[in-house]
Amino acid sequence: MGQSVAILGVGPIGMLACQWAGAMGAGKIIAVDIIEDKLKIVKDLGVDVLINAKKEDVVERVIEETKGKGVNLVMEIAGSLATQRDSLLIAAKRGRVIHIGRSYSDVLLPDEVFTRIFRKELEIYGAVNSNSSPLDNEWK
């Protein structure tokens, strides 16, 4: 693969995504979260760049790490409004953005951010997340 990957949100699914990116031969893996302990865990999973979004500007740091190009693949897993916005801002030209996390409020993007979808010719995908609600009679 050799391409750069950014994983926004490194809970259990994000940690698996970090491992997957490494196994698939990603060139550079960037992990973003707001919890330092999660970032420490993924460091041992082969992540190249750790970004604590509470301490650093995510977009600025990713653009710096990629020498102004952005990343080839963004996996938005956190489901926050900030990561959904940032996913579009850090993607490279003709990059791919996969939205796995879900925000439970309206997602409103400023025109400057929304326009990047067209200008960068981004491919945007949605991935179904599982539901952990108990099924009828599951515990009987």
From TrEMBL:
GO terms for molecular function: oxidoreductase activity. It comes from marine sediment metagenome. Pfam families: ADH_zinc_N. This is Alcohol dehydrogenase-like C-terminal domain-containing protein. Keywords: Oxidoreductase. Residues 12-131 form the Alcohol dehydrogenase-like C-terminal domain. Signal peptide: none annotated.
